[in-house]
Amino acid sequence: MTTEATSEGLSNLLHEERTFPPSEAFAAQANGTAELFDRAAEDREGFWAEQARRYVRWETDFEQVLDWSEAPFAKWFVGGRLNACVNAVDRHVEEGNGDRVAIHWVGEPEGETRDITYSELHGMVQRAANALADLGVGEGDTVAIYLPMIPEAAVAMLACARLGAPHSVVFGGFSAEALHSRIDDAGAKVVITADGGYRRGKPSALKPAVDAALAVGESPVQKVLVVQRTGQDVEWDEARDVWWHEALEAADGTHEAHAFDAEHPLFILYTSGTTGKPKGIFHATGGYLVQTAYTNHVIHDVHPESDVYWCTADIGWVTGHSYIVYGPMTLGATQVMYEGTPDTPHQGRFWEIVQDKKVSILYTAPTAIRTFMKWGREIPDKYDMSSLRVLGSVGEPINPEAWMWYREVIGGDRCPIVDTWWQTETGAIMISPVPGVTPTRPGSAQHPIPGIDARVVDDLGQPVEKGSGGYLVITEPWPAMLRGIWGDPARYQETYWSRFEGMYFAGDGAKLDEDGNIWVLGRVDDVMNVSGHRLSTAEIESALVSHPKVAEAAVVGAADETTGQAICAFVILRQEAVAEADEQGEGGDLVAELRNHVAKEIGPIAKPRQIMIVAELPKTRSGKIMRRLLKDVAENREIGDVTTLADSSVMNMISEGLKQPS
Ligand code: WTA
């Protein structure tokens, strides 16, 4: 199987030739410049040293930019000492910006808001740090955080950072079992949680999951700090549980922060691997802070004194860590933090928040954008979104149609879109257009940002030609790179650094177009091999979604006796098309129409063997489609483990609803 085989099938995406050059007005005010590229190309380490001193306050300056002598274990900004919390909070107060709003918090129940200035945040992190210290937390102790999207989540993370206690945030939607394994693996001494949170209009309990997680075996946890959010009843262990508000009230209001080594672990964050045990990715303080602040400034183009920035991710994912907490706060930005879902209590909630808070920079995920498309443009069209000036996308490939919809409907055709590729492991943005500099192209993350070296290589690790596909690798160490897998250095080396000599293999397939733009096609485990041709699921999905009747599509490769793998597509129709399909009984004509559409867009080889019209797709709580489960359906197997699904009934709906012609 050669990578050349992909070129034929990938013509659909790569024939995208629309480009949107930056407007002069935007370029004139942009933080990103062409000089950044030149400077980084001429002296990479010198470039990073400049960013480090520009964005971060060091209590002790570093002596060496990078120590790569024990590759792939990197040390950045060697000898430097800093405190991440001081950088994210105290500094802004000292510099006279204490009255600036740090967080415009919007609760899920309508009308419930809190505005927190940097001075107020400063008071909160000091008390929280003292409260944690009173519970025995000190440098190097790990703390698990299991909270809803409330300001206390950010405060808890920053308070840990202030003490040099690595935090391990576990997404509030994870089960007790998942929480248990993460707490144990990290050896957490304290858990910070809440009585509950709001979910689709109702209080939903959180603390029972912590109680259950700690009831199994011998737990390393000594204390549980509980934020009162919903006021619902909770079980209480007098010896172990402590109310957050009581602890903070009792704690001293001033806390003197110490500086830690640049390489001191800042946090652990578990990512669900494709199989087996989740990996505890850990990040070090200095390099991570430098790259998150730099990218938030240059890629999101945050101007802290005037912008209102909003990243819609949950704090439980890396996007929330880097682009809600550490990046924007190190810059001293003003941001919106929203507790709820996009459709609570109505489908216009996001746009209402944009209008009310005058959001100028919005950072969200393609899956959300496609959902908004499905709901229809009449909804956002009702709101005044003229405050928006930059739009960001992250987490998965964004198909050109969703990109164009985002640009036209949400961005009023005037906002640059930054399609940012990165991972939990990379810590910060790696590949993205630089707004104000790069002419953008719908659907492509385009090029490595200044200071980053990434490439698309073939099976042998050789760079591919323009127009060809291969593997996305990073060829030089970068400041925010993971420092390892918690407690398992061998797995780190093997997972990321063994596929290609001296290069970090990201696990994604990518393609270079004729202009040298990088198109990330998705995980290589989602790449199919059909009759000796390699085809990307993302590409066929993109073709399907480009059909006017399709809202969303997921494609999997199912085992096939003759062709190796065969393409199976699961398709959600747009509202108007659903009625039509119903009229046609099993939707036979429509299926034929869609198959032909894919053949037309990509080539006959990409024609799905099977297209199944479904009402929902199985998604993890972070919104990723679980192709593994779809593969089970496509291969007529018993459906596998559904515990990480946001809604496990979806699989029943799919299996029961399928009476498809093939
Ligand atoms: C995918 C999220 C295409 C990719 C920040 C990567 C993307 C995985 C993009 C990491 C993008 C992320 N275009 N694919 N702009 N951004 N991905 O660790 O497959 O949750 O390997 O980090 O998401 O997901 P993670």
3D structure, described in words:
GO terms for molecular function: acetate-CoA ligase activity; AMP binding; ATP binding; metal ion binding. It comes from Ornithinimicrobium cerasi. Keywords: Acetylation, ATP-binding, Ligase, Magnesium, Metal-binding, Nucleotide-binding. It catalyses: acetate + ATP + CoA = acetyl-CoA + AMP + diphosphate. The protein is α/β, with parallel strands linked by helices and 662 residues long. It folds into two domains: 347 residues, ANL, N-terminal domain (Rossmann fold, 3-Layer(aba) Sandwich), CATH 3.40.50.12780; 128 residues, ANL, C-terminal domain (GMP Synthetase, Chain A, domain 3, 2-Layer Sandwich), CATH 3.30.300. The chain contains 23 helices and 30 strands. The longest helix is centred in the N-terminal third of the chain and has 17 residues. The N terminus is likely disordered. It binds 5'-O-[(S)-ethoxy(hydroxy)phosphoryl]adenosine. 5'-O-[(S)-ethoxy(hydroxy)phosphoryl]adenosine binds next to helix 13, strand 20, strand 24 and strand 25.
